[in-house]
Amino acid sequence: MSDVSATAISNVLASIYRSVDVSIINSIADLNNLILRQPDLVFTGMKYLPGDTPGQKIWLAGYLEQHRISHTGSAISAIKFEQDKPQSKRVIIDAGLSSSKYLVIKAGRRASKDALELSFPLFVKPTNLGAGAGIDANSIVWNVAELNAKTKALYVDRSADSLVEEYLPGREFSVGVLKQEFSENYMVMPIEMLPGPNTNGERIISGELKSAKLETPVSAVTEPLLRDKLSALALQSFIALGARDYGRIDIRLDAKGIPNFLEANLIPGLIKDSGNFQKACLINLNMPYKEMILHITRLGLARQSKLLAVHETQAFNRALSPVSV
């Protein structure tokens, strides 16, 4: 979470709640200091921090759950899918939902035409990076030579394996999912992404576009049938991944106009006046930033109350249990 996001969120929470602090987590020591304070709720804005050994990841949600501290958003079991795009696609496909055919090319490996079971054009991106990282005008490839050039670039520049998918040429959408309070139902909020053409004339959301000051234009989805199809796929994908409370599902249409799952973002950016999740809430629900933040917070606090009730019941039952000697 950026400093801008942390400040905006803490300002909203401080207007309602008595004690609100911002914790900067850069190490396991920082995380343990947070645990010692025993907050009622942690409003999370990061997935993991590096561990003591190379490649080790300490997942924030998992660490908090181990210490029985409630946090906003999804549990660790779902958040890990966001960092493993091939596995999330496999879960979606196994659930009977639409997502383009794909394969993974390991870092440093090359593809051969004979072994390739996908049809060109293909779309190539890192298996484990978000925010458009590694996506550029060379991500759409039309032959094996271009494919190997792109996978090599991801290996050299990002040390990343490559997720190779059959390219979806249709319109792109981002669908916000937000749980209703006092209910198991969800509000599903599609918006259409309207990127301009890149140097090749293709409309894709690249890392450069996501990092630019001018954000990708978006619009409401007003076609009833398309809206229903997008909403159904997004909610079914959200549930299949085991997500909870809130998140974003990205979808793109294939050549026949059928919605296909692209990827999930279960800790979407929450910068004020920015980001597709906030835009989805505003366009679909007329929900302003402050109410969105408070809504997400109340969902987490409600779960924390249930967690305390379970622990109190378990402690009471243990107190009544006979002791063997």
Description:
It is a single chain. This protein is an alpha+beta fold. It has a single domain, classed as ATP-grasp fold, B domain (D-amino Acid Aminotransferase, Chain A, domain 1). Helix content is 38%, strand content 17%. It has a five-stranded antiparallel sheet, sandwiched between helices. The longest helix is centred in the last third of the chain and has 32 residues, at 289-320.
Instruction: Label the overall shape.
Output: globular
- Given helix and strand content, the structural type is alpha+beta
Secondary-structure element string? HHEEHHHEEEHEEEHEHEEHH
Summed up, the domain count is 1
User: Which regions contain 5 or more consecutive residues with pLDDT less than 50?
Assistant: 308-325
Work out the helix count. 10
Architecture (CATH level 2) name: 2-Layer Sandwich
Instruction: Indicate the radius of gyration in whole angstroms.
Output: 21 Å
Major sheet: order of its strands?
9-8-7-10-11
Topology, number of strands: 11
Write the layout of secondary structure elements.
Layout: H1 3-14, H2 28-37, E1 48-50, E2 57-59, H3 60-66, H4 76-82, H5 85-94, E3 102-105, E4 122-126, E5 140-141, H6 144-158, E6 162-166, E7 172-179, E8 186-193, H7 207-211, E9 218-220, H8 224-240, E10 246-253, E11 259-265, H9 276-285, H10 289-320
Antiparallel strand pairs: 1-2, 3-6, 4-5, 4-6, 7-8, 7-10, 8-9, 10-11
